[in-house]
Design a protein that fits this description.
Length: 258
């Protein structure tokens, strides 16, 4: 919660309006700052422009009657006392409810640092503030996480960060390793190579690496004589010229008897 400073001008008027929540404001009177000490710090705190001071307290009655602060122990009601002093910068003033000369109930604490008056928060306010801060941080984290979430019916959910593309561009591109061929691919290639080798046999052969290649003698199969070829051609021709079986004549017509 931001602090609002309340200063008093030369006429004794307050520069800004007083807020309902005193935990978010501060007050200072620059004319008192150089001369503050444990003896006059309560007088400084009881200034009329101080929003933390209750004018219905017993200190105001003692001040009007020009009595000492020792008479506060014999009164009943709200009072202010100097609880701790660390000259010249820190003073702690307590607001308490006196019930008996030996029994009091603390109501609030105020600390003065370099002349600036603040109200010390109570335990409930501190816990409430810490819980709200934690919840706000968690809610902000969820909102930011949801802004990076993407969804597509075919892909599903994934995260897309703003600096992801920059990181991918900054990374050095690594060469993809070639995947080894499958068993089917290797066997298929072997059969193709054997087929090509049978169709196109090598003309040279190298027995050992580094030696001169030796020409390979290709044995040609003897061609069949032309007479046998002609005979084979004639045989199917004679088979085709064989007489076909005689067909049966149509049946004779017989005369009808009258």
């Amino acid at each position: 919660m931001p602090w609002k400073s309340i200063n008093r001008d030369e006429k004794g008027q307050v520069d800004c309006p007083i807020a309902d929540n005193l935990l978010g404001i501060s007050w200072v009177d620059s004319g008192w700052v150089p001369i503050l000490n444990p003896g006059n710090v309560l007088d400084y705190f009881s200034e009329r422009s101080n929003p933390f001071y209750d004018r219905t307290c017993n200190n105001e009655i003692v001040k009007m009657q020009r009595l000492t602060l020792e008479h506060l122990n014999q009164m009943v009601g709200v009072e202010y006392i100097l609880l701790h002093a660390q000259e010249p910068i820190l003073y702690i003033i307590r607001k308490q409810q006196r019930q008996t000369p030996t029994q009091v109930i603390p109501l609030a604490d105020y600390y003065i640092i370099a002349g600036v008056v603040y109200q010390a928060p109570d335990l409930g306010t501190v816990i409430n503030s810490r819980v709200l801060s934690a919840v706000h941080g968690i809610q902000s984290a969820f909102d930011e996480a949801m802004s990076y979430c993407r969804y597509h019916p075919s892909k599903g959910y994934w995260w897309h960060f703003k600096d992801q593309e920059e990181r991918e561009k900054a990374k050095p591109k690594s060469k993809k390793k070639e995947e080894p061929s499958s068993l089917f691919q290797r066997h298929r290639v072997d059969t193709l190579l054997l087929d090509l080798r049978s169709k196109f046999p090598p003309t040279f052969y190298q027995p050992k690496p580094g030696e001169k290649p030796i020409p390979v003698e290709v044995k040609k199969e003897p061609e069949p004589p032309t007479e046998t070829v002609k005979q084979e051609e004639r045989e199917p021709a004679t088979k085709s010229s064989a007489p076909a079986p005689a067909s049966k004549p149509p049946p004779e017509k017989r005369a009808r008897l009258q």
